[in-house]
Amino acid sequence: MARQYIDCREMPSESNCTVAISADSEKELVEAAVQHAVAVHGHKDTPEFRTRIAAAIRMGTPPVEEPGRATL
């Protein structure tokens, strides 16, 4: 199993969140990322949002330097 991550620095955000979440399974990572997005950023937990979160998963570990921001 390869390490995977989602980095808030890659997402559009008014708060400029710098949290990165990593896990060994996609299921665990999506769950943690959705919980963060709902609790901190006010997103709604919908199947469509979970699909967008899953599409933002990167392999490996988050970079130390800030990556470019994408569009969700």
SSE layout:
Elements: E1 4-7, E2 20-23, H1 26-41, H2 47-55, E3 58-59
Antiparallel strand pairs: 1-2, 1-3
Which key features would you list for this structure?
three-stranded antiparallel sheet, 2 helices, 72 residues, 35% helix, 14% strand, alpha+beta
Describe the structure.
The chain has 72 residues and is an alpha+beta fold. The chain has one domain (4-59). It has 2 helices and 3 strands. The protein has a 3-stranded antiparallel β-sheet, with helices on one face. Helix 1 (26-41) packs across helix 2 (47-55). 14% of the residues are buried. The model has no long low-confidence stretch (mean pLDDT 89).
What is the percentage of strand-forming residues?
A: 5-15%
Shape: globular
Question: What strand order characterises the main sheet?
Answer: 2-1-3
Termini separation: 26 Å
Question: What class, by secondary structure content?
Answer: alpha+beta
- Mean pLDDT comes to 89
Q: How many distinct beta strands? A: 3
Strand count, sense and closure of the main sheet?
A: 3 strands, antiparallel
Estimate percent helicity.
Answer: 25-40%
The arrangement of helices and strands along the chain is EEHHE
> Over the alpha carbons, how many angstroms does the gyration radius reach?
11 Å
Uncertain runs: none
Number of helices: 2
Organism: Ramlibacter tataouinensis
Protein name: DUF1059 domain-containing protein
InterPro entries: DUF1059
